[in-house]
């Protein structure tokens, strides 16, 4: 099978890709920003450095899945140079360090679109409203303006972190509900989430099949609000929602700017790949299955 380099391997998506691709016969090399990670063929590497030759010579990849990113919106706003270096300019360095035989799959984001774009298509104009979104736009620019074999994947993921010290959106909902803490979920933010496990299946398809070098939106196929997502997940797990309420993102002036409509249209990808992306029911079912497998979330009723 192919030799593959996965960046951001200490993060939620990257660590899951390492596990899944390794289990499917790929020769996986992994890199991340954490120094001590229990992953075979792992190399700590600072993507803010000037030259990636050492990383590429070490891994000698046929495919690179570039997951590495600073995703905290407030951190990006406070550290714009670091955000642009890691999230965007890193693509230029990957291209410079590899030859044309290496396929590059770049994980981008819905945050390249403004709030007034509903079910954004790949042809819609992008206008990021945050440093995070702008940093991803730069990465897309560097890749689109090459003659390389590439895929830019705009997505919105949900999942569980392998590192118990890291808390993502799903873990925050679960812990808040289980501990009966009062928490508000945005009823005015819409998205089309896909789980990290379902996205991994699509990335494996892209890594092993030839599609035109394009931007593809790979998310869930249906829309829901952040509140509706949390309610559906907790209902499926049988966890009471007595302390979970509807909230509005407009109340949080200190947050980095984030689009209230994060929905993406998946029609182009489904047409080109002949694959069917998960609906909300499938997304929730997948999450429930993974949560129930995790001893950390053994629900006591």
TrEMBL record:
The keyword NADP applies. Residues 3-291 form the RmlD-like substrate binding domain. It is an enzyme of class 1 (oxidoreductase). Pfam families: RmlD_sub_bind. Belongs to the dTDP-4-dehydrorhamnose reductase family. Transmembrane segments: none annotated. The keyword NADP applies. Its EC number is 1.1.1.133. This is dTDP-4-dehydrorhamnose reductase. Pathway: Carbohydrate biosynthesis; dTDP-L-rhamnose biosynthesis. It catalyses: dTDP-beta-L-rhamnose + NADP(+) = dTDP-4-dehydro-beta-L-rhamnose + NADPH + H(+). Keywords: NADP, Oxidoreductase. Catalyzes the reduction of dTDP-6-deoxy-L-lyxo-4-hexulose to yield dTDP-L-rhamnose.
């Amino acid at each position: 099978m192919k030799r593959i380099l996965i960046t951001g391997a200490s993060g939620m998506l990257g660590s899951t890709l390492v596990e899944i691709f390794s289990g499917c016969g790929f020769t996986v090399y992994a890199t991340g920003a954490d120094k001590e990670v229990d992953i075979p063929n792992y190399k700590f590497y600072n993507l803010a450095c000037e030259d990636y030759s050492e990383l590429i010579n070490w891994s000698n990849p046929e495919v690179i899945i570039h997951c590495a990113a600073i995703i905290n919106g407030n951190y990006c706003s406070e550290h714009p140079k670091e955000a642009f270096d890691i999230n965007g300019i890193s693509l230029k360095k990957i291209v410079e360090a590899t030859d044309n035989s290496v396929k590059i799959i770049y994980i981008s984001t819905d945050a390249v679109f403004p709030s007034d774009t509903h079910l954004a298509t790949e042809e819609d104009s992008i206008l990021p409203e945050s440093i995070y979104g702008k940093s991803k736009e730069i990465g897309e620019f560097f890749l689109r303006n090459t003659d390389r074999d590439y895929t830019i994947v705009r997505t919105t993921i949900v999942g569980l972190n392998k590192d118990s010290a890291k808390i993502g959106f799903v873990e925050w909902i679960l812990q808040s509900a289980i501990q009966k803490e009062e928490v508000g979920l945005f009823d005015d933010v819409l998205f089309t989430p896909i789980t990290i496990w379902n996205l991994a299946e699509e990335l494996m398809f892209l890594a092993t099949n030839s599609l035109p070098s394009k931007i593809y939106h790979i998310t869930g196929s249906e829309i829901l609000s952040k509140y509706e997502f949390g309610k559906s997940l907790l209902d499926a797990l049988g966890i009471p929602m007595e302390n979970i309420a509807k909230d509005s993102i407009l109340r949080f002036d200190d947050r980095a700017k984030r689009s209230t409509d994060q929905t993406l249209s998946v029609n182009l990808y489904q047409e080109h790949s002949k694959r069917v992306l998960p609906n909300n029911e499938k997304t929730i079912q997948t999450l429930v299955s993974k949560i129930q497998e995790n001893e950390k979330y053994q629900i006591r009723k």
